[in-house]
Amino acid sequence: MPILTPQVPRSYNTANRVELNQVPMDVYEGELPEDVWGYYFVVGPVGTVDSGGLPWPEGTATTVLCGDGMIARFDFETEGGPYVTTSLMKTPDYWADYATATVPALSCFKFNNHGIMRLSPWLGMRNFLNTAFLPIGFDDPTTTPRLLVTIDSGQPYEVNPETLQLSAPIGTQDMWYPDGGSFWPFPLLFATAHPVWDPKTKEGFFVNWGKGFRDFIESVPMAYDAQVMCDQIKWSTTKFWNALNMGGVNAARSYLERKCNQAKNWVRVNTPECVQGVWPQQFTYLLRWTGDTDLERWNLVDQYGASVNIMGSIHQIAVTESYVILLDCAFDIGLNSVLTNPFPTCEDLDRLLRYMTARPILNESVFYIVRRADLDANPGVVGGTGMKDVNLPCRRFTVPMGACHFQADYRNANDQITLHVSHNTATDVSEWLADYDTSLYGKQATPVELRGIFPAPMDVSRLAVYVFNGETGAVIGAKIGSVNPEYWSVALYAGDTQFTPLPQIDAVGSLYWNTTGFFPEQATQFIYDLYSHYPNRITPVEVLRRMNGQGRPSTLFRTDTPGGPAQDTAVFPESHICGSPQFIVRKPSGLGPIIKATEDDVVHHRPRYGGHPIKNPDPVRKMGYIATMVYTPTGTEVWLFDSESLHTGPVCKMRSDNLVLSFTAHSCWLNKLGPPGPATVDMKGELSKSMKGRGKKYKRIFNDFVFPNLPS
What we know:
The protein is an alpha+beta fold and 712 residues long. It is 16% helix and 28% strand. The chain has eleven helices and 37 strands.
């Protein structure tokens, strides 16, 4: 059997759960620039209380995303630094998981891994908080930024940037609607990992969604194919009646369909509170938050009055001066995740069910547009899920190819919205390397050390810019490029105000992207078969078959023109992977409480849109550094690049033998640390409601483990 090269660095899937406190980092190459400042944060999963870290013990592999979040903060401010501090995200359900895994008498309540979800049949779903951050900045120069930590499958929390301890959840639990199982103390709840904060209006926007039982069934490809066939039949019959000049038949059918959708939404909205959430239901809520306890909630509906139907997930949303934009993205999570890995200890049955239920990620990007003016004109619900919903219509538009990440220019003159989209074509982070997977390049099984990480991409990624009318949804202009054929698996991004508390700017400036590359060890026969006929393919499948021995390197690159070529690129050495890029603006001279770029701090370049309808209202790029996590054959490191000279390599490299941290997801940067906002949620009171009528063992979980460890 062929040797698979280049190899994935084992540090990419190696983590312990040891928490560090101000441990010095060794700058072993180059020098730390004097104008690097502030605090670089990353977060990522580090296994569960069962696994004790990563990689997964043999026979227990599930996706790496199914693990407790670990925040790492790299301190460039304290004298004698840099230093690293790490902390596990210990939500109330973490302590319940710890209790049921370590106390034999409580093992009947134990949590188990099911794909991206970790469930207990008696307690509910884990909230890992392992994906992203939301820095909250203010126009007031004396106000210290606040920080939220988030995930797609759980309620977001505020974290104390000084201690890295959780402060309080955003809103009370009953302000978030569960996708089935409201009787659990830890309900099945799906949100967005990328909520958005508008510092100009001091408003935060979140999403809470559920796919419902229909989409649980449609996870099975045969059911999905049947739905596609029905849609094709409906289209053909519409065309037939129109050809006979009998459009009235189509109008009658459309009327009945509209009334059925409206009735379905009415039934869901008016379901008695005592059974709400027990049966999985389709819904998409937009939530608005102003920094205190309460959330204001709207039920988004389509042109027929039915709740918006999410097919993948809502990993990211964005905001402009007049609109909120949601993306139904190519990252499939939800109740259907249970079908992917229902019997973690039964390999043969899991393999069969994955073969029967797996389907490719979405091959289109579906955006929903909400007018911010409509939010004020139709005040939403403030309070628990038992209150009657306020329906809010939204506009829908679709572009080819799936995506997970996008950004929006804040300015939308003449109702024209500009989106910058990363299309992760045939790159499926919903799947993972399973125990029973075999290589695309032979019969060998995937290495034990890599089980749980994402499979290799099956095509090159694309970057695009779309300009469309926010009132009509009509696309005005589009530009799509593959950036460079060598840039495989475009993943995370950074920008001069992205994931920072800095003041809002009118337009997205230069963006810095990392690619994880193509490693033959991650290429499995299952994923190859699943995506061999994926539409919009650039790379022929025959080329994939010949990539062993060469692969594609991990890179870090800058784009100045959306959808255009890379202007500057750092190519990482063989068996190195770049992750979690974050822009750090250079420390200005005469530093004040608000960062203001001077003429010496920015680079001017041509307007980014060329012939597109909107010209760049802010054609400058701030100068600074890009901090990245780098997974090497010998361990995890932090590298720092000059943002204006990526191709010359890092200006310094730093590491610590105490830092054993695997794949990290998103990052952020804060200019200073301070306490979180006031915690006004009574978490003990909320969880106590589920204890009525329960037995002694159930109550022991909360009285002995959960309640004593709640944030004070």
